[in-house]
């Protein structure tokens, strides 16, 4: 029996399918999100001149993480002529590029040619261990100089606008790093959420007092854990104020996403609060500000969160009442801090990082230490 509705339904499905295929083909032909590239080969001996004006580490790149052995193995690979993967560059303007992928390789080569490190851990050419570039036999220097590194250049015409340019660069960066050295969460946030706030995190992570309190003075925080610590302060402060309930990773991700909308004034307020808070923490607790005990060797995130949020609340209260911090006496707060932590070790268990737990620790601090804060007016 002929069923008109069945035939009609079949025709509609066929039409929809054809329409989808047409849209797909049209999308492909129109080159939506199609990347325009060209290839290049750079002689190693000329890298210093070639990369003199290039940006080696744009915001979405990870920080340098190669140790000397890994750097040395790259040099050994060039000596024995092992094929090296191409680096990826993005054309900022004519003949000026930033390194999207391959920053470690380029930096290593530039450092080696500048005699900034000696080879170590070589297996095939172990005779060269301990030697810098200028100390290598001349024949080997010439051999390295003759080698090339290949580059794939993403041309500027790939992107139609600044926003699409950043989206494209982040997309390519993420794809290039899939399967490579796994990025830490903050490195991913750094790549995905560029802007004034992300620049602020990088700036504040270099604050001398902050680095001193964390023991980062003579160390490079290669995986951006210092930036994540700065972010923790802002994210937890916002979450406790607005009673947000999320896990720490989701909280930090959400705050970074929100930060894209921050204006210059917002960033300035945050900068001021952070620097004042770190200074007050150091002024009151000294170098042990973020430690659970005076004899502790390392600062702890749990104590850092609690102290920073408590100090920030004091600063905001004083500013609201128009009281200068220099008019306030903080009596024996260091001793009382340690006593408070020891009196409730369960509360200060590092396993509990939920916003509820952070708020409870700050409230407990305020209750235990409040009597030691005296306004001298």
Automatic annotation (TrEMBL):
<feature type="domain" description="GmrSD restriction endonucleases N-terminal">
    <location>
        <begin position="51"/>
        <end position="193"/>
    </location>
</feature>
<dbReference type="InterPro" id="IPR004919">
    <property type="entry name" value="GmrSD_N"/>
</dbReference>
<protein>
    <recommendedName>
        <fullName>GmrSD restriction endonucleases N-terminal domain-containing protein</fullName>
    </recommendedName>
</protein>
<dbReference type="Pfam" id="PF03235">
    <property type="entry name" value="GmrSD_N"/>
</dbReference>
